[in-house]
Amino acid sequence: FVAPCEGWRSRSSLSVSRGVKRPFSRQHVRISNDNYLWTLAFSTHPHLGSPPSPPAQTRLPLVLLHGFGGGVGLWAQNLDCLSNSGPVYALDLLGFGRSSRPQFRSDPEGAEELFVEALEEWREKVGLEELVLLGHNLGGYLSAAYTLRYPQRVKHLLLVEPWGFPARPDNPHHSSIPVWIRAMGAVMSPFNPLAGLRLAGPLGPMLVQTIRSDFKQKYSSVFEDNTASDYIYHLNAQTPSGETAFRNMTIPYGWAKRPMLERIGQVQADIPVSFIYGSRSSIDSDSGFAFKKTRPDVEIRVIRGAGHYVFADQPDDFNQTVLQILTRTEKTGNNNTQGLRPSVDTEGPNP
């Protein structure tokens, strides 16, 4: 890490620990070539001081992959609830957050492969045989890519506002990535999408607070100050490793060079696939419904009042939705894990 990282490690840990009550471990999981993935692991053991509860059958591990420019801290409002009935792992993608920042291959296929193989090495080191994979934004794209490469490991694929599914439309300015990233990418191209944050120097945190003023509101139940936006800044003030890989995987402005919608149909039919969208998102749900036309069993959930960061905009509804999906996955596998009924709608594509 470069020098600024030392100043935000405690803030990074604080951003998670202030949002959860359940015990968890955190460590760098070492993989090949001196790389490592920063990992938070939540077990099924009850929190100290909480009333005893009847023993529950172990649920399949849930693995959370954040999106472009994100990190594990953004799940602060979800980890406690999601880990209440089973193990949860959240990790910083290779090249992002507190994970190592190697040099990726410049071709999109090579960059994608390094992301996917890092995740597979992580799985082996952690010792997970099977898992439920949930990815947001870029994490959704990589979750689908991992499922295509290692189908025997994934019992359910959950795609939350996934990036990189449709091919570039005739109108290249069509919404495909969050507006704030797209706007910055437009003025910084051909530089890395978030280069402006680093060029801003000491004004970087203020820049994020201005561009992403909504983040303070999204995490107001956890933080009363600018911790969330400061966290976003420090995540992206480091060496742009994963960010450079993302740039090499895209064409202006943020469209995938290798659209996942052209490959997602190859996911094995016995692996359930669910999409979760926000009703107010800048990313529409057309891709999910396009896939559903070829695979009718695909589930699409639209959470009312949520934008692209569904899990932060409406954390309770998001958590309930995921728990219900997990419950159904376990029932399919003859497991009696109980879930909760979310207050959400299943709707057509966003206008």
Describe the structure.
This protein is of the alpha/beta class and 351 residues long. It has a domain at 26-44 and 58-164 and 176-186 and 238-332: Alpha/Beta hydrolase fold, catalytic domain (Rossmann fold), CATH 3.40.50.1820. It has helices at residues 9-17, 79-82, 108-126, 138-149, 179-188, 195-199, 204-211, 214-218, 227-236, 241-248, 286-294, 310-313, 315-332, and strands at 24-30, 36-42, 62-65, 88-91, 131-137, 154-162, 250-251, 255-256, 273-278, 299-303. It has an 8-stranded mixed β-sheet with strand order 1-2-4-3-5-6-9-10, with helices on both faces. Strands 7-8 form a two-stranded antiparallel ribbon. Helix 3 packs across helix 4 (138-149) and helix 7 (204-211) crosses helix 9 (227-236). The longest helix has 19 residues, at 108-126. Residues 1-8, 45-55, 183-191 and 334-351 have low confidence and may be disordered.
Q: Remind me, CATH topology of the domain at 26-44 and 58-164 and 176-186 and 238-332?
A: Rossmann fold
In what range is the share of β-strand residues?
15-25%
Low-confidence stretches: 1-8, 45-55, 183-191, 334-351
* Class based on secondary structure composition and strand pairing: alpha/beta
The amount of helix comes to 25-40%
Largest sheet: 8 strands, mixed
The end-to-end distance, rounded to whole angstroms, is 43 Å
Provide the residue-averaged pLDDT: 81
